Amino acid sequence: MKLDILIIGQGIAGTITSFQLINKGYSVGIINNTIQTPSSKLASAIINPLSGKKWHQIAHFYAFLEDSISSYKGIEKIINQSILQPKDHVYFFQSREEQIIAKQQINPAWYEINEEKAFKNINSPHGYAQIKQCYCIDQEVLFEKWKLYIAHHYYYDASSFEHSALKYENNCWQYRDIQARNIIFCEGIGAKQNPFFNNLPFTKNRGDVLYVNIAGLDNNYIYSFKERLVPIQDQLFWLGSNHTWEYTDLLKNEEWAIRCLQDLQEQLPYPIQLIDHKVAERPTSIGQQAMAMQHKDYPNMGLLNGLGTRGFLQASTHCKDLLTKMQL
Ligand SMILES: Cc1cc2nc3c(=O)[nH]c(=O)nc-3n(C[C@H](O)[C@H](O)[C@H](O)COP(=O)(O)OP(=O)(O)OC[C@H]3O[C@@H](n4cnc5c(N)ncnc54)[C@H](O)[C@@H]3O)c2cc1C
User: Fold this and answer.
1) Are residues 306 and 319 located together in one domain of the fold?
2) How far apart are CA 78 and CA 151, in angstroms?
């Protein structure tokens, strides 16, 4: 089989890369294993203009937003299903001091601070901020429908890519019965095993996520208390997450889960039912810079990785840069 580009991995990086290439008229193939819980499937999959709890606006946010909206809208057209939904994000201050810091940093284009002691039925003794320009992405629909689309119209193989079986012949990549003019690795933390890019500053951290059922809570908002609560469907919400940099396993952090549920129950007037608890690793880099690069010896080999905590916002822009570098 002959392809223009073979892509390894179908998290958010591989999905966006394949979309942008198809949009330019190239033929693509994806090889993606499903051995572990990939970061993209466990992410809250929101787009948010704020960086952490310091109330800093993400640099170049509008440029990232424009590129990502263009990709998600393009994918929506192809799969004929909605995946991107604008949602306001209600951030409940946990102390008076936090509210003062937020006010000092405020850019009225982004937030509206409210001194009121309640938002709807939710107790909010220190006030809250309502943040605009936030979006939720339905990642389940995105990844499943996109996989089906690629399998139907191009080539999709749900197996593990073996780097040692990749050969370079006549300026093309040969992998088993596939001949591709270019190859792009979008392997998330799997890149640690990639011998072609083994000198990059890859790192990773782990995050626990809870899935909770909350009858009565309005699912038209994203909520931030000590942790973030993101609507998935009906009364089902995503709750998390922690960032652990030093760890030896991916066992559930039960202590964090209990504390997280207790903290949330203190603020919510509705009963919270725990449905599931999962753990995943975020692919990142030292200095937390995304990596969109060509191989130093092979201009037709690329890598998109290290998307950290903002893959759903930043993948499109970094992918665009990578394709420009690779002259695709
Ligand atoms: C708890 C948590 C919450 C998050 N919340 C958000 C959020 O709200 N917003 C946001 O923008 N980001 C969020 N992130 C970060 C985001 O998930 C990552 O930036 C993004 O998912 C990274 O995507 P990726 O495609 O690079 O990697 P991955 O999602 O890990 O995808 C890599 C894929 O490649 C496959 N693969 C790897 N090696 C091979 C191989 N040899 N052969 C075949 N397939 C292979 C893997 O199985 C996987 O499917 C969160 C992350 C976590 C863990």
Assistant:
1) yes
2) 14
Point out the ligand 1 atom lying closest to the alpha carbon of residue 9.
34
Ligand 1 pocket residues where CB is under 6 Å: 8-14, 31-33, 38-40, 42-46, 160-161, 186-190, 207, 209, 240-241, 280, 282-283, 305, 307-313
Mean pLDDT of 120-139: 89
Name the CA dihedral angle for 139, 145, 146, 147, rounded to a multiple of 10 degrees: 110
10 and 71 assigned to the same domain: yes
SS3 sequence of 140-190: HHHHHHHHHHHHHHCEEECCCCCHHHEEEECCEEEECCEEEEEEEECCHHH
Encode pLDDT of 157-211 as tens digits.
Answer: 999 999 999 999 999 999 999 999 999 999 998 998 999 998 888 888 899 999 9
Protein residue whose Cα sits closest to atom 4 of ligand 1: 43
Domain count for the chain: 2
Measure 308 CA to ligand 1 centroid, in angstroms: 9
pTM of the model: 0.94
77 and 156 both lie in a single domain: yes
How confident is the model over 280-291, as a mean pLDDT?
Answer: 84
Residue 112 sits in the same domain as residue 54: no
Instruction: Give the structural domain span for 257.
Output: 85-132+203-283
Q: The domain spanning residue 21 has which CATH number?
A: 3.50.50.60
Residue 34 CA: nearest ligand 1 atom is 47
Is the domain of 144 the same as that of 58?
Answer: yes
Nearest CA to ligand 1 atom 51: 43
Give the separation between CA 98 and CA 277, rounded to whole angstroms.
29
